[in-house]
Amino acid sequence: MKILYFAWLREKAGIAEEDVSPPETVTTVAELVEWMKSRGGGFAEAFADEGMVRVAVNQEHVRTDHPVAAGDEIAFFPPITGG
Amino acid sequence: MIRVQAEDFDVGRELEKLSDGNHGVGGVCSFVGLVRDIAGDKTIKAMTLEHYPEMTEPALAKIEAEAHDRWPLEETLIIHRYGRLEPGDRIVLVAAASAHREAAFEACHFLIDWLKTQAPFWKLEETPDGGQWVDARSSDGRAAERWLADKPQDKPQDKPQDKPKGKPGAAE
């Protein structure tokens, strides 16, 4: 699956996008976040305060119980501040 | 109409185009968002707007469709800029054209409130202490939630295909 990072999540993760293949036990956004954190370094830092992380799966805002699968585009970003 | 662009826009020309040739429009209401030079007690030299290109236009289209679903509108416009902007620069223009002023005012207010919590943009401010990401304001969340509470109950919530309407665009 393709992962995108925006704003300070991108800065903390140290990359804007990457392709990842998490283990099969990762089936939801929440499980993906846990797996991300387990990778340590910038990823652990980016997801340290989960309350500040928003998620979109295939360009749609979703909650953390939303399913994820191979081929999905998953974006992580802080609360929106446009307008 | 939706445009996401780096370049500036001409407010007068854009508003004119909204009612051009459509004499059913009785009023156009607009909101222009500008870059301030101060945030809290900090001076802002500039800000950079980052966005999620693949998601921005679909998110704005959804917001626009929601406005048309709620009010009898002739036309709407959302222009949002990205990139580096300086104090006084225009960031966003939203406008709603309708036969009567009430729908135009309400739809315009809805568009900007909804955009602030739904469209994937993030602001990085250049302050004397360096770059700082703007925190989302809880007041923006409350402003958007107000429209959830105000949503007319006689309309279907999630299934536009269930609308008891003939053709799309048939005004109520």
Multimerization state: heterodimer
Order of strands, main sheet of chain A, comes to 2-1-5-3-4
| Chain pair sharing the greatest interface | A-B, 16 and 28 residues
Structural category of chain A is alpha+beta
- Per the CATH scheme, the topology name of chain A is Ubiquitin-like (UB roll)
Helical stretch count of chain B? 4
Largest sheet of chain A: 5 strands, mixed
In total, the number of strands of chain A is 5
Mean pLDDT of chain A: 95
**Any idea how many domains of chain B?**
1
How many distinct beta strands of chain B? 10
Top CATH class of chain B: Alpha Beta
Which architecture of chain A per CATH?
Answer: Roll
User: What would the CATH topology of chain B be?
Assistant: Aldehyde Oxidoreductase, domain 3
Instruction: Note the gap between the termini of chain A.
Output: 30 Å
> Which homologous superfamily in CATH is the superfamily of chain A?
Beta-grasp domain
Shape type of chain A: globular
Sheet having the most strands of chain B: 4 strands, mixed
- Class per helix and strand makeup of chain B: alpha+beta
Q: Whole-number average pLDDT of chain B?
A: 89
How helical, in percent, are the residues of chain B? 25-40%
